[in-house]
Specification:
267 residues; mainly beta; Jelly Rolls; seven-stranded antiparallel beta sheet; 2 helices; ConA-like_dom_sf; Alginate lyase 2 domain-containing protein; Alginate_lyase_2
Length: 267
């Protein structure tokens, strides 16, 4: 039989165990509730973003596995994708070379020869990275889709912010894939890049429209056409839009969208 001392010691240990368990449960609860998902709310909470999110999946911080699948955006936010603290702007951010936080259009697969206009329309703010080592990051793309042996799996167009490129500091650029030899079909062995200066990065929000129709691609910044070119060399490839951030160097990138939509009409 246990002595009175043993019973008292056993009761004390039980009390301490219960207190510890209670403390751990409370800590776990507060950790789950208070631990930062670096944003206040899910972008899907705002009606203005539902159309583009219903037609997208989120890739972060790598392209695979998918971070948020198409149809799963209701209530979804994470460290890469969230509404800003004011609850008004859809925010994308990521750190690390070759990492990304991007929406990938799901019902794309459109040809640059399309008779139907394919448009990405956005109002966006591009932030200067705190890390000077992040010389370049992409915030909008047209990308082709690789199907087996078909396709290049390369972007036709990337819109980027660059800190110091061709003697231009803090400018936006359009990098456009073209054939190196115009007499041969574009391929992984026959491509070059055309680089178009879009001007200094605006401090606040600015308007962007990318449009493709009948083998012609245009890019407009704040209503001014900066790119207008024949892209018939890209015909026959399936394409989709991407929006967010994709790092070409180490550092953290960030953009906010006041509005973003994909459209296949002139409205």
């Amino acid at each position: 039989m246990k002595s009175k001392h043993d019973k008292e010691e056993s009761q004390t240990m039980m009390t301490l165990t219960r207190s510890l368990a209670t403390g751990l449960c409370a800590a776990a609860f507060f950790s789950a509730v208070v631990a930062p998902v670096q944003g206040q709310d899910a972008p899907y909470d705002l009606e203005k973003f539902r159309s583009v999110l219903d037609d997208s999946k989120l890739q972060a911080p790598t392209s695979s596995p998918t971070k948020i699948k198409q149809g799963d955006f209701r209530g979804a936010s994470n460290e890469y994708f969230f509404l800003d603290k004011t609850g008004r702007y859809m925010t994308f951010t990521v750190e690390g070379d070759s990492n990304r936080s991007e929406l990938r259009q799901s019902t794309g697969d459109w040809d640059t020869a399309t008779e139907t206009p394919q448009r990405l329309i956005a109002r966006v703010r591009v932030f200067v990275p705190e890390d000077e080592g992040l010389e370049q990051f992409t915030f909008l793309q047209i990308h082709d889709k690789k199907n087996g042996s078909e396709g290049l799996n390369k972007p036709l167009l990337r819109l980027t912010r660059r800190s110091d490129y061709r003697d231009k500091q803090d400018h936006l650029w359009a990098h456009i894939r073209t054939p190196e030899n115009g007499n041969e079909p574009i391929s992984l062995k026959n491509f070059a890049t055309k680089n178009v200066d879009l001007g200094p990065r605006p401090e606040g929000f600015f308007d962007v429209e990318i449009r493709v129709q009948k083998s012609r691609m245009t890019v407009a910044i704040n209503g001014q056409t900066k790119v207008d070119m024949d892209v018939s060399y890209w015909n026959g490839l399936n394409n989709y839009f991407k929006a967010g951030v994709y790092n070409q160097n180490n550092g953290r990138s960030k953009v906010e969208f006041e509005s973003l939509r994909f459209s296949n009409s002139d409205n």
